[in-house]
Amino acid sequence: xxxxxxxxxxxxxxxxxxxxxxxxxxxxxxxxxxxxxxxxxxxxxxxxxxxxxxxxxxxxxxxxxxxxxxxxxxxxxxxxxxxxxxxxxxxxxxxxxxxxxxxxxxxxxxxxxxxxxxxxxxxxxxxxxxxxxxxxxxxxxxxxxxxxxxxxxxxxxxxxxxxxxxxxxxxxxxxxxxxxxxxxxxxxxxxxxxxxxxxxxxxxxxxxxxxxxxxxxxxx
Length: 220
What we know:
Blueprint: H1 2-9, H2 14-31, H3 65-103, H4 128-152, H5 173-204, H6 208-211, H7 213-216
């Protein structure tokens, strides 16, 4: 189609040539990814989802809407967990010993004062009751999410588990998209940050609050 338009444009006035050329360039730019300008837009990413900038170099979005929806649901949930973790990780390193001492308990930090993790070790210090509570809470939210999905059907928004006690989620569509975009971007940053925490502490054997104190200690 573009070849035929280009051939016809060769015999048209210069003004028309410029217009056709502009249209072709606009179509070409539209087909290229915003995140990776040198790569085409992935098949399933049409820009309608919050935070969609055409970035999917490994094809995780899948080949149909259901796969894309499942991956977005997983991304949102992982992002939310990461946001909680990226806040809880340094807070534990700053206050766990003090709180444990006040309650007469053993602290849960490693010998270097780092938060327990798969790479840092120290997970054996965590009481079994904690894991039971975490699994039960996760199951509760999963059930609520499934019930909300069945209830709202086509109106279901990925990640909606019926939990919004402070009514942060707006009523109109435009503001909803803005709020969703903020959440997904914060979640993505948090996933990168928590990975950075884990790798940094595994390599340097120093708590992040000590490695980068200007982020976590008072400036006065």
